[in-house]
Amino acid sequence: MTDAANSEHTFAPSRDFVNQANVNDPGVYDEAERDPEAWWESHARQLRWTREWDTTLEWDPPYAKWFLGGTLNVSDNCLDRHVEDGYGDKVAFHWEGEPGDTRTVTYAELLSEVSTFANALKGLGVSKGDPVTIYLPMVPELPVAMLACARIGAPHSVVFAGFSAQSVVDRVEDANSKVLITADGSYRKGNIVPLKESADKAMQGTDKIEHCVVVKRTGEDVAFTEGRDVWYHDLLDGADDDCPPEEMDAEDTLFLLYSSGTTGKPKGIQHTTGGYLTQAAVTHRLVFDLKPDTDVYWCAADIGWITGHTYIVYGPLANRATSVMYEGAPDHPDKDRLWEIAEKYGVTILYTAPTAIRAFMKWGPEYVERHDLSTLRLLGSVGEPINPEAWLWYHEHIGGGNCPIVDTWWQTETGGIMITPLPGMTETKPGAAMRPFPGIKPVVVDDEGNPVERGESGLLTLARPWPGMLRTLWNDDERYVQTYWARFGKAIYFAGDGARLDEDGDIWLLGRVDDVMNVSGHRLSTAEIESALVSHDAVAEAAVVGRSDAQTGQAVSAFVTLLSGQHSSDELRRQLREHVAERIGKLARPAELMFTDDLPKTRSGKIMRRLLRDIAEGNEIGDVTTLANPTIVKQIQQEAQTARSS
Ligand code: WT7
Q: 352 CB under 6 A from ligand 1?
């Protein structure tokens, strides 16, 4: 173990970083607090509006409308504006395919292709307000399709290409789309993923789709249904490249993005135009300190998730950024692929997830050391609480010890970043998301809704509307109210996360509240115990769940993956349990600890704690085929059974 995972140690940005930062005056917090609406307005003004708004905010809890009466078009803001300003030749995306093929897409080329495809969509009968489902891998046609929809006012609903045919069916049915945009296939870990086959299966499960547009990516033979399926390139050939952007109301729907909730049915999270783009652009510019003329920015997420919507497509393009976009797996052909790409394009800003960072740790620093990453100047993290060990590893091995790290908390529902350091002024603490973005009002409350004191934990709520917030769930206002606005009243958004306010008033995210355990009446965070386990020299990754226990209410069940070269043994098990007891307290010592070769993950890389809980409880487990690694489940079950009977 290292002492470094010590939350008392803070990391201040270097003087050089501070001096050049887009924002380095702590006065922004007070300014935004004094008049949040004026703060957001000042950033909305950075966009190009075709008509100025009359009302900044209409708040009829829990329904918010921002920049009411204003009109604009998102694709105009992301493309036309920059081309008119003389940046047509600037690179929007350095795209790299997994097999090593590359494409460079400039703003002018993007505008031309978006306009042409927008006309093609109109030709298929898509008009303003018609939802279009997009089921594409990480190819340039994905942002093109999204922006083309935005250009004509058709809300898009992107379905992550790793999802099954059934997920496409559910989403197409719920959104009622007539058009599906997909590809023949894509590349992943050297294999071809037959996406069109899944799309075909989906179209057997719903009769809603009238037209299926197919992007040629792999060139494999695919089945084509006459009259329904059409090649993307054939459509482009037949369409004009002049398509004036539709004038949209600020509150018109820009997109739906389905996200799983606590029930089986995915929630269609609905985002609108003016407020969403305002928050996407300002958070991208200030949190990532973006300098559009010199930075090479890389958000290594998939556009199929909100992270990619906001921080690969809309935020960066609104800010005229040059981005890297990568199609495939981080370990193909070898475990240094990301670092090879970062070196090749001279990446300056990298945004990724803790689960990826822990994979890099497990693979070892030698893969990073093969490459020159000295152009990097800022690192970001998103998706789950980052354990201090991973934070410190990221800082040292990727950032070379001198890049600020922004640990950004937000959700599909929030549209953009909500809690985060500002890199030019925040002294960061490894593992803490630190402070609300200016204008955001998080309040950590107890079960009754009373704000907790510093030094205490509770539930994270948001006590003030923000421009990028979801407006409702598609066709389901009732579920919208029930899920987010019922627990503490309809003006307080319940995020579903636990959080701790430390003695300085800084915010630490503790994971979803269903991941917070209560052992003998004490609140324990799964994230905290995981972090303790990962801080041990032998451990690569850990997941902790609470299982019911007759005596203590809940007991701690830990699942641990070792670093390569380490071997499981009863002695190591004993050491790890003691290690947790030492780090957090005896109360946190895992009742049982299972060694496993991998942890069950969703396709988005989140550890499936719900499944682990079922395994720990000895419950029947449901369908695991949607996991990224379903085969690991058997091994874990056997381990757990042995642990229970010993
Ligand atoms: C949930 C939202 C936001 C884009 C990716 C996930 C967790 C997200 C952090 C962070 C701790 C985090 C929360 C949140 N989460 N970022 N920096 N620290 N937890 O979007 O799928 O909507 O998931 O991810 O639990 O509620 P999402």
A: no
Give me the mean pLDDT over the 485-499 stretch.
Answer: 95
**pLDDT tens string 429-452:** 999 999 999 999 999 999 999 999
- Angle between helix 27-34 and helix 36-44 axes, rounded to 10 deg: 110
Pocket flag, ligand 1, residue 433 (CB < 6 Å): yes
pLDDT band at 4 (very low <50, low <70, confident <90, very high): very low
What pTM does this model have?
A: 0.86
Ligand 1 lined by 410 (C-beta under 6 Å) = yes
Q: Work out which ligand 1 atom sits closest to the CA atom of 409.
A: 17
**Residue 385 preceded by cis peptide, ω within 30:** no
Rg (CA), the chain: 24
Tell me how far apart the alpha carbons of residues 124 and 610 are, in angstroms, rounded to a whole number. Answer: 42
382-414 exposure pattern, b = at least 16 Cβ within 10 A, e = fewer: bbbbbbbbbbbbbbebbbeeebbbbbbbbbbbb
Ligand 1 atom index nearest CA of 433: 17
Pocket flag, ligand 1, residue 206 (CB < 6 Å): no
472 bridge partner residues: 270
Q: What is the mean pLDDT of residues 63-76?
A: 98
Q: In angstroms, what is the span from residue 383 Cα to ligand 1's centroid?
A: 4
**DSSP symbols for 350-412:** EEE-HHHHHHHHHH-THHHHTS--TT--EEEEESSPPPHHHHHHIIIIITTT---EEEEB--G
Instruction: Select from 18, 5, 8 the least CA-distant residue to 377.
Output: 18
d(CA 233, CA 214): 8
